[in-house]
Design goal:
This protein is α+β, with helices and mostly antiparallel strands. The chain contains 21 helices and 15 strands. The chain is elongated and about 150 Å long. The strands form 3 sheets. Strands 1, 2, 3, 4, 5 and 6 form a 6-stranded antiparallel β-sheet that branches.
């Protein structure tokens, strides 16, 4: 019967292993004699005290201690005794073994009940070491390395719990186990007070090297199968076996140089990861999911392991002591595990493409800056200030232009200009009848995103992507069906949040133009209907009236007014609302001309500065009233003066027309159909008409609301 292990069980077991291991590491660190001293190596002989407390409070800081002794022996103190990381400081195994022997001898002395230190002046200081080290005396770099080891193990275990069948998760788990070994091992011996037993120191130092070797080998093996399989599955195991064999060879004394034995293969392994990453880069050209996962690896590996290799391991190969910052540098490994976790779990792959290239290029910029600085500082022996200044200068002159070239060529893909994009959007929204708007829309999407495939899909109400960013869904736009775009830029990248935002903007813009075009077409049709109605109701009726009128003068008047109305209809077509001045300009000229022809002087007064724009209906009504009144004055009033006063009061147009003629005859109370037509028109406007017959003429006053939109003209 096959037993199935659940993710919860794996997580629980890994947490237990991590906690137990951490407790053991803490016990190893504190179960050492403690004197309350902090040292730095002195250049020629001895070690300098920089801090003293607790059992050694009597020792003056800055004292140079040259010897330590007890009832278990004595030994002269040397700067080599404070070596933090033997791998990076001690060049040969002979020196390494000599160092370990001295560590064992000093450790034995320190386990005595009392210990005596002698300084370079011959003064002696007696110290009673504590049997164990206080937990709070452990420095920050100790806790950094402990946390790195624990978290690397927990993160890799969590990934393995949910991807236990994937080879990449298995190799990541192996690297986490290696980190749980080499980081805490280094934490213990690099933060010791002065010395520890020879066997324990050798075990921790050699274990640190083995863990680091397996860590590097596991990442090489991981890249052989992640994100694509590059060779047979057993090849990864061969790589790990090769690193273990290398470790055994250096343990049995095959190599003389410790620096070479413990740095060469690791360096080759790190460099090979870049070679494998380059192979993956070309193989994932048409696989955006794998490409995005690879980007997670490149980003995390470069910012984590490679920075550690460059700042810690590589300088050691050239004799530069980087051990003082090594403990803090272990924190970089957490970046590696974070990036690989996101990649293997396929977390937010589509969001990475926007910024990973920038981060990598800026990381390379900093790397080149450091290379130049080290070159001037170490090789040419320039001063620190001059070295960094020249490094900045050369980085600016040589690398920054090259960085822009790399970015524009490889990372900044061709984009449509805003002008071309706007033109294409307008062409889509204003597609003439008979042409396929869907084809135009798909062509625009191809120009922007260059997807591998476009297909119609179920109706959707918003633009979005799937979980991995492989498909961009475009919502329905009017008659244009919803679309699904698969794999951006020919399959080289995922769709991002920026792509979704751009798609939404395009959809809103096209929909807005289509809606406004529909409203425009509706307005055009309504305006055509209005013109047709005016032509039918007014122009046609006036022409028929002129045709059948036997009075030549009246016929000419009707024709003249009809032409004026026709001109007004044409002019008002493009001006749906006019000011009073615009509305009355032609009418005033026409009225003045008619009255002048009849030898009647005219006076115009307009008081409507605060009047709103006037609708075409109000224009036509006012025009008809004034024309009818002027016709009556010319025909019946026998006047030589007429005044027209137009006002806007309380949202009403008020027209007052006076003359100095004979007024309205009491025997004849109408002017044919003119007065009746005027009353009918004012009533239709919900207005009022007043006629006042005076001794010196007639006064006509008409008023109607300016905002009456329901009138029939």
């Amino acid at each position: 019967m096959k037993i199935k292990v659940t993710p919860i069980a794996i997580l629980s077991l890994s947490a237990l292993v991590g906690i137990v291991a951490t407790v053991i590491f803490l016990l190893l660190a504190i179960k050492q004699p403690w004197m309350g001293l902090k040292f730095i190596p002195e250049e020629k002989i001895g070690i300098r005290v920089i801090q003293s407390q607790g059992p050694s409070a009597a020792i003056t800081p800055n004292s140079i201690l040259v010897k330590v002794e007890s009832n278990k022996g004595e030994i002269e103190l040397l700067p080599i005794d404070l070596t933090i990381e033997p791998d990076g400081k001690l060049q040969t195994y002979d020196i390494y073994n000599y160092f370990l022997v001295r560590q064992g001898h000093i450790s034995t002395i320190l386990k005595s009940e009392t210990v005596t230190f002698t300084n370079n002046k011959g003064e002696k200081f007696t110290v009673k070491p504590s049997e164990s080290r206080p937990l709070l005396s452990l420095p920050v770099e100790f806790w950094v390395q402990i946390v790195v080891g624990l978290f690397a193990w927990l993160i890799s275990s969590a990934v393995f719990a949910f991807r236990s069948r994937e080879s990449s998760a298995k190799y990541l788990l192996l690297s986490g186990l290696a980190t749980l070994t080499f980081a805490p091992f280094a934490a213990i011996y690099t933060t010791r007070e002065l010395a520890m037993p020879e066997a324990l120191f050798r075990f921790l130092s050699d274990g640190n090297f083995l863990g680091g070797s397996i860590f590097t080998a596991s990442f090489v093996a991981l890249l052989l199968c992640y994100p694509k399989l590059l060779g047979p599955k057993w090849l990864g195991l061969v790589i790990i076996f090769l690193f273990i064999v290398w470790f055994i060879l250096q343990q049995i004394g095959v190599f003389t140089s410790m620096t070479f034995a413990r740095r060469f293969l690791v360096t080759v392994g790190v460099l090979s990861t870049f070679g494998l990453a380059a192979i993956h880069w070309f193989k994932t050209k048409k696989d955006p999911v794998a490409r995005a996962a690879l980007q997670w690896f490149l980003l995390s590996w470069m910012l984590g392991t490679c920075l550690f290799w460059f700042f810690i391991l590589m300088p050691q190969m050239f004799g530069v002591d980087t051990t003082p910052i090594q403990g803090y540098a272990f924190g970089l490994f957490l970046l590696v595990y974070a990036g690989l976790t996101f990649g293997i779990l396929r977390y937010k792959l589509f969001a990475l493409d926007q910024w990973w290239g920038n981060i990598v290029l800026w990381a390379l910029t900093m790397l080149i800056l450091v290379v130049f600085d080290l070159l001037f500082l170490l090789a040419l022996q320039f001063s620190a200030g001059l070295s960094i200044s020249l490094a900045f200068l050369l980085s600016g002159v040589l690398w920054l232009p090259l960085k822009n070239l790399v970015w524009n060529h490889f990372l900044n893909r061709h984009q449509i200009s805003r002008e071309d994009l706007f033109k294409q959007v307008i062409n889509i929204a204003l597609t003439p009848p008979g042409q396929d708007i869907n084809i135009r829309w798909q062509n625009l999407l191809k120009n922007i995103y260059d997807p591998l495939n476009i297909h119609e899909c179920a109706d959707c109400s918003d633009c979005s992507t799937d979980d991995d960013g492989q498909i961009l869904f475009i919502q329905t736009i009017g008659s244009i069906p919803a679309l699904g775009l698969e794999f951006a830029h020919g399959g080289q990248r995922m769709f991002t949040a920026t792509d979704v935002t751009l798609a939404k903007e395009l959809v809103v813009l096209i929909q807005h133009i289509i809606d406004n075009r529909s409203e425009y077409s509706k307005g055009v049709n309504e305006e055509r209907q209005r013109i047709a109605q005016d032509m039918h109701d007014n122009i046609g009726a006036q022409l028929l009236g002129a045709l059948h009128n036997q009075n030549t003068e009246r016929k000419n008047t009707l024709i003249r007014e009809t032409l004026s109305d026709l001109r007004s209809i044409i002019n008002d077509t493009s001006r749906t609302e006019l000011s009073f001045d615009e509305m009355l300009a032609d009418l005033r000229a026409e009225t003045t001309e008619r009255l002048s022809a009849a030898s009647i002087t005219t006076s115009w007064v307009i008081k409507a500065d605060n009047a709103p724009p006037v609708s075409p209906q109000s224009i036509h009504a006012l025009r008809s009233i004034i024309r009818e009144a002027i016709s009556n004055i010319i025909k019946h009033a026998a006047a030589n003066f007429a005044s027209i006063n137009i006002e806007y009061i309380n949202n009403e147009i008020s027209v007052t027309i006076e003359d100095n003629g004979k007024g309205l005859s009491t025997e004849k109370t109408n002017f044919g159909n003119g007065l009746a037509n005027m009353k009918s028109r004012i009533t239709g406007l919900s207005g009022n008409l007043i006629l006042l017959n005076r001794e010196n003429g007639l006064l006509l006053r008409a008023s109607f609301p300016i905002n009456n939109n329901g009138i029939e003209i």
